[in-house]
Every structure is written in C-alpha cells, then in structure tokens.
Design a protein that fits this description.
By secondary structure, the chain is mostly beta strands. It is 6% helix and 42% strand. It is built from 2 helices and 13 strands; from the N terminus they run βββββββαββββββα. The strands form 3 sheets. It has a 6-stranded antiparallel β-barrel. A two-stranded antiparallel ribbon has the order 5-6. The protein is globular, with a radius of gyration of 20 Å. The protein starts with 5 loop residues before the first strand and ends in a 20-residue tail after the last helix. 21% of the residues are buried.
C-alpha cells in the first residue's frame, strides 16, 4: 500500500445526490453545489483490482475493475450545512447540533474541486461520495496557536450507471468551465468528433 499523495485544494463544493428508481430505471439528480470554505487538502487512492488471465504462458487478458477512490478530505472547519445535510446531524431549536447513532447512513454527494497551484486549473467532480464522521482533533502548543483541522474519510464509489469522475479537458468549453461550481456537470454522452478536413 503506497503512501497517499496529499493535494492542496481550492474551490471545494459538495452537491447532494438523490437517486430515484422508477420501473427499474435509476435516475440521478444533484442539488446546487455549496462551497466548503477552508478545505486544506485531499488524499485519494484508486480502488480496484487488476486480474490477469494466463494463456499460452503469457498474460492473455487482464480485467481491471474501477471501484472508485477512497481517502481523506481535510477541512479547517466542517460547515454546519454539511453536518446537517450530509452527515445527518440534527439541529435543535437552540441551535445545537445533535449526533445520533440512529442517523448512521450519511447522504451521498458529488464533490467538486480543483488543485491549488495546478497551472491549467483543471476542475474535477467525483459523482458519488460518502463521508464518514470526522475524528475530533485539537492541538494545543505552548507558544504558537496552531488551528486544528477536521478530517473526513471520503469514499467515491461508481454510480450504478458506472459514472465515477470527470475533469475538464484541455479544450473544455468555456461556459462549462465557468459554470462548473453552479451545477454538477454530467455528460450527455455525445463524444467530441475529431476535427479535420473532409
């Protein structure tokens, strides 16, 4: 197991995913992406297996499964809306967040982000994420005050239609790029044709 590489982040957003099934057909819809300010870093590992099939003494065929990604999202402070809408904590009438063991199933969401310092500022989306409850960490140092961060364990699974992630390409449509954090982009499936004469 290799060390996870940590990437510094900016423009992190989450959009709640709703899956509905009608007559055996699943449809997916997303809420409006909301900003998660103070996101520090993300460290993700690809999940999946590579299984070789041997014939004639060589690897004749290799099946590779894509099971998404898993890792950690480090945030200065998890916003209250994320705690209530995704982690299923309850806000009572006194403005206190209540965590109950009965609310174990967190809501699925899309995670949108870009890497800080990325020259091309490629924008990413992971379509079906689950976040587990954050561990509580606080640091006290004598002379310096170092703010603690909160870490969410993130799993990005493939949707049932196979969709895992998307990122903006070199020739991305500018409107799509600019609207990346306004609504979750899902391709309509039309492949770009190669440009050329004839």
């Amino acid at each position: 197991m290799g060390n996870k590489v940590k990437y510094n982040l900016k423009n992190v957003h989450a959009a709640v995913l709703t899956e509905t099934e009608t007559n055996g057909v699943k449809t997916f819809s997303y809420g409006t992406p909301k900003a998660i300010p103070g996101a520090v870093s993300i460290a993700l590992d690809a999940e999946g297996e590579s299984s070789p099939f041997y014939a004639d003494g060589i690897v004749y065929f290799r099946s590779v499964t894509n099971n998404g990604y898993s890792g950690d999202l480090e945030i200065a402070l998890i916003p209250e809306w994320f705690r209530t809408e995704v982690l299923q904590e309850e806000l009572d009438s006194k403005g206190v967040l209540i965590e109950k063991s009965t609310n174990a199933e967190s809501t699925k969401f899309a995670l949108l982000f870009e890497f800080d310092g990325d020259v091309n500022a490629i924008r990413h989306v992971l379509y079906k994420c689950t976040a587990s409850r954050p561990s509580i960490e606080s640091e006290t140092k004598e002379d310096t005050i170092e703010p603690g961060t909160e870490k969410l364990s993130i799993t990005a699974d493939p949707r049932s239609d196979g969709l895992v992630k998307a990122r903006t390409g070199d020739e991305v449509d500018q409107t799509t790029y600019q609207n990346w954090y306004k609504s979750v982009y899902v391709s309509t499936g039309d492949s770009a044709s190669t440009q050329g004469e004839g």
